[in-house]
TrEMBL record:
This is COX8A oxidase. It is a single-pass membrane protein. Its main location: mitochondrion. The keyword DNA-binding does not apply. The gene is Cox8a. GO terms for biological process: mitochondrial electron transport, cytochrome c to oxygen. SUPFAM superfamilies: Mitochondrial cytochrome c oxidase subunit VIIIb (aka IX).
Length: 65
């Protein structure tokens, strides 16, 4: 009973989650075309780079059998 009371009191004494700095609306400084292009290129390389590496070296992986 003491453990139950302690856990209830602990959760009641603790305030809710801290407010985050989330702001809705348009960005204060919009991205330019160069920054957008760099972002797309980085995402493209991060997602498709490893797959391209494996496909390019597929014969090397088959020869190791």
């Amino acid at each position: 009973a003491a453990l139950l009371a302690r856990s209830v009191l602990r959760s009641a004494a603790r305030p809710g989650p801290a407010r985050r700095g989330i702001v809705s609306g348009p960005p204060q400084s919009p991205l330019g075309p160069a920054e957008t292009l760099v972002g797309f290129a980085a995402m493209f390389a991060a997602c498709l780079g490893p797959a391209a590496w494996v496909l390019a070296h597929l014969d090397d992986y088959r020869k190791r059998e």
